[in-house]
Write a structure and sequence with these properties.
alpha+beta; Metallo-beta-lactamase, Chain A; five-stranded mixed beta sheet; 13 strands
C-alpha cells in the first residue's frame, strides 16, 4: 500500500479547490487546479519539502489555472491538460508551459512516486474537461476522484459557458464517473466532497 497525503487549499474569489496530492514516502507530488493565491500554494509546497512532478488542470477556466505560471516558475514542473481546452488558456496563466506532446488523453496514467492517477475525459462543462481517478488500494481504502467542475455535491457543472453542453456533461458523468465504486470520494473543483454512492442516490440532476 502506498500512503499518500492530500491537502485542499481553497483559493481565489470563486473559492476554487486546489488539491495537492503527495506520495508520503517519496514526497513526489502533483498540484491539481492551482487557481489563484500562488504564494499560499508555494508556501505549502516549500514548507513540506514536496517535489512537484506535474501541475494538472482539470479544465481551462481562469479560476482553475491562474496560479499556473508562478507555480511552474518555482517548481519547474510541466503543466498537463487536455488539448480541447487550449483556447481557454491565456498566455499570462502559463499557457507557454503547455506543450502538445504533454496533452492528456482519456485513459492516460500519470505516475508519481508510487501513485497513479487515471485520466478520464469528462467533457460538458468545457470540451477538454478531465477527471482524475486514484483507485482504491488493496487494504480497503476508498478511491479518490478529482472531477473539476463536472460533478458537485447534489449538483453538476454549469454548461452555459462557451463550449458547454448539458447532455454531454450528463453523459460524461454517467459513462465515466457513476461506474466507479460507490465509496469513491468525489473531490470537486468547488465546495465540499461527496461520494459516488451519495450522488447516485441524492443528486437531482442524476435522477432525471
Amino acid at each position: 500500500m502506498v500512503k499518500y497525503y492530500l491537502e485542499r487549499l481553497v483559493v481565489g474569489q470563486l473559492s476554487t479547490n486546489c488539491y495537492i496530492l503527495s506520495d508520503a514516502a517519496t514526497k513526489d507530488t502533483v498540484v491539481i487546479d492551482p487557481g489563484a493565491n500562488s504564494a499560499v500554494i508555494i508556501d505549502y509546497l516549500t514548507e513540506n519539502n514536496l517535489i512537484v512532478k506535474a501541475i494538472i488542470n482539470t479544465h481551462g477556466h481562469f479560476d482553475h489555472i491562474t496560479a499556473n505560471r508562478k507555480v511552474v516558475e518555482v517548481t519547474g514542473a510541466p503543466v498537463l491538460a487536455n488539448a480541447l481546452d487550449l483556447s481557454l488558456f491565456a498566455k499570462d496563466n502559463g499557457a507557454e508551459y503547455l506543450h502538445t506532446e504533454q496533452m492528456l488523453l482519456d485513459g492516460d496514467i500519470i505516475e508519481f512516486g508510487g501513485l497513479c492517477l487515471k485520466v478520464l475525459h469528462t467533457p460538458g462543462h468545457t470540451p477538454g474537461g478531465i477527471s482524475l481517478y486514484l483507485a482504491a488500494d488493496k487494504s480497503g481504502g476508498c478511491g479518490l476522484l478529482f472531477c473539476g467542475d463536472t460533478l458537485f455535491l447534489n449538483s453538476v457543472g454549469r454548461t452555459d459557458f462557451v463550449g458547454g453542453d448539458f447532455e454531454t456533461l450528463l453523459n460524461s458523468i454517467d459513462q465515466k464517473l457513476l461506474i466507479l465504486p460507490d465509496d469513491t470520494i468525489v473531490l470537486p473543483g468547488h465546495g465540499p466532497s461527496t461520494t459516488i454512492g451519495k450522488e447516485k442516490e441524492h443528486n437531482p440532476y442524476l435522477r432525471l
